[in-house]
Amino acid sequence: MSKEARFADFALLLRDTDDVAVIKRPVRAGTELFNGSTRLIAGRDIPAGHKLAVKAIPDGAPVRKYGQVIGFAKGDIASGDHVHTHNLEMKDFARDYDFCAAARPVDYYPPEKMRSFQGYARPGGRVGTRNYVAVISSVNCSASVSHYVKDRFRIEDLRRDFPNVDGVVAFTHKSGCGIQPGEPHQLLMRVLAGIARHPNIAGYVMIGLGCEVNQVQFIRQEFKLDELKPGETAPTFLTIQSTGGVRRTVDAAAAAVAKLLPVTNDLRRASQPINKLVLAENCGGSDGNSGITANPALGVASDELVRYGGTSVLAETPEIYGAEHLLTRRAVSRGVGEKLVSLIRWWENHARRHDATIDNNPSYGNKEGGLCQPFTNTPNRSPRLVSVSWTLPVTIR
Amino acid sequence: MDTPGYDPVSMTGLVCGGCNIGVFTTGRGSVYGCKPAPCIKVATNTPLYNWMQDDMDINAGTILDGTETVEQVGRRIFEKIIAVAGGEKTRSELAGIGDEEFAPWLLGPTF
User: Fold this and answer.
1) Could you tell me which of A45, A301, A372, A381 has the fewest CB atoms within 10 Å of its CB?
2) Which chain A residue shows the shortest CA-CA distance from B76?
3) pLDDT for A29-45, tens place per residue?
4) ipTM
5) What is the residue extent of each domain of chain A?
6) Residue environment code for A331-363, b if the CB has 16+ CB neighbours within 10 A, otherwise e
7) What is the pLDDT of residue A375?
8) Is B87 left (phi over 0), alpha (psi -120 to 50) or beta?
């Protein structure tokens, strides 16, 4: 005898036209799911977050979820079958970019409705949500020195002596030399200068070795780090070779941090409009629920922030792959839409150059959670990040 | 922003690009934190939220459970963003995560 259960208790059909439903609670093989007059018998045990065919799908036919094509049937799929990597495959199909078609104007809240948060006003109009002091390494060769400097300032002591300082952080990395002077180097410099200039960093020390490709001097000049706005704390720049080795550099950098701490501690939070918030959105360690719960909800929050004049940033281009047409429709201009498509082409080339495939990104855990290997980067996975609830116009800066 | 999908690299890029707060959704249970910006983590399902509650700031699994709508959870995330921006600590901040998670995108060959 098969067990009977209500379809709605175990599965969720995201759109009436979808071919697959998302399993909310694990379903045992043979369970009969009834939904009004419709009955489905689960072909095998299906874990939560995975997909169940709600209708028969012939070999080669497109499979829809979120109202989007997420792949094509590999062999005939029967109603009630588990749909996963074994019977779903990726194929190229034409997507209509339909540039700007759905870019509706933002319905901003009027100024008198502006909400506020307690933030740190920084010179130049930026606003911090935290108040840190940074030790930044230009190269891996100065990473340990940066950590030694940070280790001189224990968080317990900071909390006691400088309660308004959130901490001293060592920003270290594995590169900085043996790299091309072109884009790879530019990218690293941009990231390090981005930390130096970050509104959550009240002051910093930058440390290099001295002979590396990624010269502290270059970053200083290229990003004009010496041009201070009124009220900005002067940074300290050191190299281990010119300071005379590890011990002397740690002492010199620690002395510079010690000077920054009381100044940083004197800063206070004050009322700031929420249009100063710049939101980073990320979806990671995903499962089959990401696209139907947390991401659409984040979309609601993101839209709300934008309606107050804030900024919301979506990234992870390879995970947009295959769903880019959902963003190009919301592009503020044709140029922005075409730029997004060109980024997608860049990623295809990048993958090809390294003998990789762009549709093979999901991790072991992603797949176990119900995301599909052959398709995952394409709509099967991407709409979870892209389509569901963000509704406002898209631009690229 | 054009970044890889690898979370530490994408978040590092976003933060260095000027983001001063983050929201990170996860279904498997990421414990990511991203100094110097606070990072709010949203669980996609209730079993994960209950299992790793020390690491999760918000449960969006209520949408699947049928006790909240997408709109309601979205409102909760929005209010959490404002509270955290104003100094409320996230779970990853309380755990001290975020020093080792700084990961610039290393593009091109190493010579």
Assistant:
1) A45
2) A301
3) 999 999 888 889 999 99
4) 0.98
5) 4-89, 132-266, 274-385
6) bbeeebbebbbebbeebeeebeeeeeebbebbb
7) 31
8) left
Shortest Cα distance, chain A CAs vs residue B12, angstroms: 8
Closest to A354 in 3D by CA, of B72, B79, B107: B107
- Look at A297 and B37 and tell me if their CB atoms are within 8 Å: no
Asked if the Cβ–Cβ distance from A179 to B105 is below 8 Å, we say no
Please give, rounded to a whole number of angstroms, the shortest distance from the CA of A313 to a CA of chain B: 7
B46, A48 Cβ separation under 8 angstroms: no
* pLDDT band at residue A287 using 50, 70 and 90 as cut-offs: confident
- DSSP code at position A17: T
First vs last Cα of chain A: how many Å apart? 60
CB contact under 8 A, A279 and B86: no
Instruction: Note the maximum CA span of chain B.
Output: 55
Query: What's the CA angle centered on A337, arms A336 and A341, to 5 degrees?
Result: 115
pLDDT at A290: 86
Rounded Cα–Cα distance for residues A43 and A77 (Å): 10
φ, ψ of residue A12 to 5 degrees: the values are -130, 120
Domain boundaries, chain B: 7-11+19-94
CATH code for the domain defined by A4-89: 2.30.130.110
Residue of A nearest to B12 (CA): A191
Q: Could you tell me if A114 lies within 8 Å of chain B, comparing CB atoms?
A: no
Of residues A182, A195, A313, nearest to B14 (C-beta):
A313
pLDDT at residue A361 greater than cutoff 60: no
Of A24, A134, A199, the CB nearest to B20: A199
Would you call B111 and A297 a contact, using CB atoms and an 8 Å cutoff? no
CATH architecture type of domain A132-266: 3-Layer(aba) Sandwich (3.40)
DSSP letter, residue A380: I
Give A169-185 pLDDT, tens digit per residue: 999 999 999 998 899 99
- Residue B98 one-letter amino acid: G
Which candidate from B15, B82, B86 shows the least CB-CB separation from A280?
B15
